[in-house]
Amino acid sequence: MSTADADVASFGPDAFSLDGRTAIVTGGNTGLGQAFTVALASMGADVLAAGMTSDDSTTRQLAEARGSRYAFMEADITAQGAPRSVVERCHAEFGDVDILVNCAGRVTNEPEVLSFTRQEWDPMVALNLTAAFEMSHEVAKDMVPRRSGKIINVCSVFSFLGGRWSPAYAATKHGIAGLTKAYCDELAPFGVQVNGIAPGYFATPLTADTRADVGASQRVVDHIPAGRWGHRQDLMGAAAFLAGRASDYVNGHILTVDGGYLVR
């Protein structure tokens, strides 16, 4: 076999394995974050989920059923010093951080634009964008010296669209897309891949009111070529891919998982 062919011959299922890897997932005990936690655990990673709500019993059960180690830390990652505390907890539980998924986020809608004030704006910027930056900064301290690591930012189709009724949400999701590209540019020379996942419309508690409104739900579905709302498992393969060796030359990419929403 020629040297030129050796890299092709070496490819196999282990390119997607996360055995021996350690991950932090913010917002990892609920909603989309729970799906990311279980996806990484399914591929062999040990996972620390950090969340603002204390209930993680289902997430623990799902993660540990995959044979992976799981830990949970209740934390408000917008608080001073909290991102560092989360990383230190991961060190104590599992060791160095190999993977970070910045999933924690919030959205507040206000139909009247003139009623949307700093009271709604500030908490979303703090959690959706600033906390993601601080978490990325902290894990980079692990990754850069080892010249290895994966940071996955949860963006949105609203990273590319306007944000009617929630300008802060759209602004933070545009911002997290920009952070993904900026941190890619900074960290790629050190062997660290920074990428994003942009979900479309998914069936989660966050969208329960829209889905309960038959007319509103149908308008969403009519805009999706796949003809349905997304299910959380639709995101899990994207997370596993971006966290594993199979994506080692994928840098600064935002992988849209939206059933085709953005093309219609």
Question: Care to describe what's here?
Answer:
The chain has 264 residues and is of the alpha/beta class. The chain has one domain (18-263): Rossmann fold, CATH 3.40.50.720. It contains nine helices and seven strands; from the N terminus they run H-E-H-E-H-E-H-E-H-E-H-E-H-H-H-E. It has helices at residues 3-9, 31-42, 57-65, 82-93, 118-146, 167-187, 208-212, 214-222, 233-243; strands at residues 22-26, 46-51, 70-74, 99-102, 149-154, 192-199, 254-257. Helix 3 links the parallel strand 2 (46-51) and strand 3 (70-74). The radius of gyration is 18 Å and the shape is globular. The mean pLDDT is 95.
SSE inventory with pairings:
Layout: H1 3-9, E1 22-26, H2 31-42, E2 46-51, H3 57-65, E3 70-74, H4 82-93, E4 99-102, H5 118-146, E5 149-154, H6 167-187, E6 192-199, H7 208-212, H8 214-222, H9 233-243, E7 254-257
Parallel strand pairs: 1-2, 1-4, 2-3, 4-5, 5-6, 6-7
Helix pairs in contact: 2-3, 2-9, 5-6
